Amino acid sequence: MLCFMPGVAFIPALLVCWSSAAFIISYVIAVLGGHVEPLVPYISDTGTKPPESGIFGFMINISAFLGAATMYIRYLITEKQNESSHFMSPSCNLITLCIGLLGCIGMGIVANFQELSVPSVHDGGALVAFGSGVVYITLQSVISFKSCPQWNSHSTCYIRMAISIVSWIAVIPMIACASLISITKVDWIPGEKGVTLRILTEMHEDF
């Protein structure tokens, strides 16, 4: 099968390295250009103005593709394991894949519709990406527990569940604070109305 071909395990590693590079490169260029403050900016702020906006969009689009490929490989592996062990319903695996792919589509929307150009579309894409991503992580944690101990160790299950819990703790306040901000802009003045909510949202997003 495709998921067991030599070199396929390289794709998740490439996803992590490429996505990290996308955020770091965009951040460095944006800070050096004076477009954002160095301390906990929005991820989207580092890809709003040129030239970092072009780099951000290009690299995040590839990250979305690599993310979709990783999720599909995970789906195939789980499907193959389930054929011999029958630890879950096949539809649960398929639903998990669809939710994950929805998050990748959200990433693509964030990459192609800049924060200041089309804020409503950008924010909608970010909501889909973060929301679907957290749900996907949680469902993968559940699948891990269902396939334990034959296909996963207990430590792996607990690590994945811990990651999902931390993700929920970060995403819920982030969405709540972001929904209370009425203005979409990059340059904020200390003491300005909404700046505290903005900082809280940035901290939870980066977390």
Average the pLDDT over all residues and give the rounded result: 87
Number of helices: 6
Overall 3D shape:
globular
Q: Proportion of β residues? A: under 5%
List low-confidence stretches: none
The level of helicity is: over 70%
Strand count, sense and barrel status of the largest sheet are: none
Query: How many strands appear in the DSSP assignment?
Result: 0
Radius of gyration: 19 Å
**Based on helices, strands and strand pairing, what is the structural class?**
mainly alpha
What order do the helices and strands follow? Answer: HHHHHH
- In whole angstroms, how far apart are the ends? 37 Å
Structure summary:
This protein has 207 residues and is mainly alpha-helical.
Helix and strand layout, with pairings?
Elements: H1 10-32, H2 52-85, H3 90-112, H4 119-146, H5 154-179, H6 195-206
Helix pairs in contact: 1-2, 2-3, 3-4, 4-5, 5-6
General description of the model:
The chain is mostly helical and 207 residues long. It contains six helices and no strands. Helix 2 (52-85) runs antiparallel to helix 3. The longest helix is centred in the first third of the chain and has 34 residues, at 52-85. The protein is globular and about 55 Å long. The mean pLDDT is 87.
Q: Which labels suit this protein?
A:
207 residues, mainly alpha, 71% helix
